Amino acid sequence: MLLESESQFPSILLVSPEYPPMPGGIGRYTHNLKKRLIEMGFKVQVVCDKRGNGEFSGISQHNPRNSEILLELVDMVKPDIVHVQYEPGLYGLKLDILKPEKTATNIDPFYKSCKVPIITTFHSAYPFRQWMSLPIPIYERPRDGYLSKRTKRLISNWTRLINYRSFHRLNKEKLAQSAAGIAFSGFMSRTLGQKGCHVFYHGAERLKSASGQSKSDLRKSFSIPGHRRIALALGYATATKGWDVIEKMDIPDPWTIVINASKNGYSKEECHIDTKKKNLINLHIDFLNEEQLSALFSCADAVILPYKVSSGSGIMFDALSYGLPFVATRLGFFVEFASRGLGITVRRNASAFSKALIHLERNYDKYAETVDDFKKEIAWPEVAKRHAELYRRVAKRDELQVVVYPLKVESKRAR
Question: What is the pTM of this model?
């Protein structure tokens, strides 16, 4: 039984294999959430990979002992709530090529055995067509012949096909075994199933240290043209980013697209873009620190997101926090936010994206005004406040109303 003071600020153990200074959006998200919760008065500790700066370490992407380590840690620390940042790939997702019922992650036993209430934030959930677009590394060798390459690709597609339901089973099991689930959009909540999740938007806000510099000076620091509209394309250099569309675009005046690709630490997959064309710049900086990222957003006018797959985009939320509208592929996640007037979604082809930039330029002030009004909904104090209320209700075993935008769906009792 929690005392009244403890129920106001239950102790939280955040679980995320990825955590700064490790690169990656999930670690960055976890760090910012922890920072805001501590400012509110919560006791928050993080367990992560040994390369991260959490209070505890030992878990990692491919560690088969993750569940054992977490159970021992929970028994030692005795938190009121365990909050897991759940991206299956970060917990050693193994897709079984013959028996999909054996598809599993190395955190599954933890969910089955943990006696402390778990809250799970889901970072990926895909409809079938997007799932089939996700790559499985097949490691083709230069000496592989046509038949060998073809066989490996068929195996990759087969593995995806027979494991689609298994991937969703893992998500649904985690949701059922959690006191509450959190998703970043109504689209993701619906994809996870009928019970749904609390929809808390991904927190994002402008870094104050960069706000004092002029856009002109910031552009000079990146050697970006000072007189043109700038659309940013940022993130891991993977095929799912869809930057091949940018390569084929006839980029319309007055726009210049600025790309910065960082190396994916979890996959050997690469995406090479030919930037030797008009109105396209590649910064070649690799991973951007917080100050560089903030400076780049501060000197831009929009983001361009021609993704093949997306169940959520931290880049989109970051851009919105800097007042930048988006142009994105017509995927369920992006459509949800475009319907609020925050950006434009189109079919994933070069011509459609070029026309979208022209439309955005003609109506830029309208989009910018809508984005400016929306920013308060993703400001970290607001996002942290929503988490705090959920923590308190779960800690007290209150009956929960699953909160989505604009309001609620159905109730679920905290365990």
Answer: 0.89
Residue 270, token pair as written in the block: 């690469």
Q: Which two tokens stand for residue 51?
A: 């390369």
Q: Which CATH architecture has domain 4-203+379-413?
A: 3-Layer(aba) Sandwich (3.40)
> Are the folds of 4-203+379-413 and 208-377 the same?
yes
Mean pLDDT of 369-389: 96
CA 226 distance to own-chain centroid = 31
Q: Which residues of 367-386 are buried (b: 16+ CB within 10 A; e: fewer)?
A: bbeebeebbeebbbebbbeb
Phi, psi of 74 (to 5 degrees): -60, -40
Q: Which two three-digit tokens encode residue 89?
A: 């790939």
- What are the counts of helices (DSSP H) followed by strands (DSSP E) for the chain? 15, 15
16 - beta bridge partners?
none
208-377: which CATH architecture?
3-Layer(aba) Sandwich (3.40)
Q: Is 60 left (phi over 0), alpha (psi -120 to 50) or beta?
A: beta
**Domain range list for the chain:** 4-203+379-413, 208-377
- Distance from C-alpha of 277 to C-alpha of 83, rounded to nearest angstrom: 46
Strands (E) located in 208-336: 229-236, 255-262, 280-282, 302-305, 326-329
Task: Say if residue 47 is exposed, middle or buried (CB neighbours under 10 Å; 0-12, 13-18, 19+).
Answer: buried
Q: Containing H/E element for 392?
A: helix 380-395
Query: What percent of the chain lies above the pLDDT cut of 90?
Result: 69
Helix 290-298 and helix 314-321, axial crossing angle in degrees, nearest 10: 60
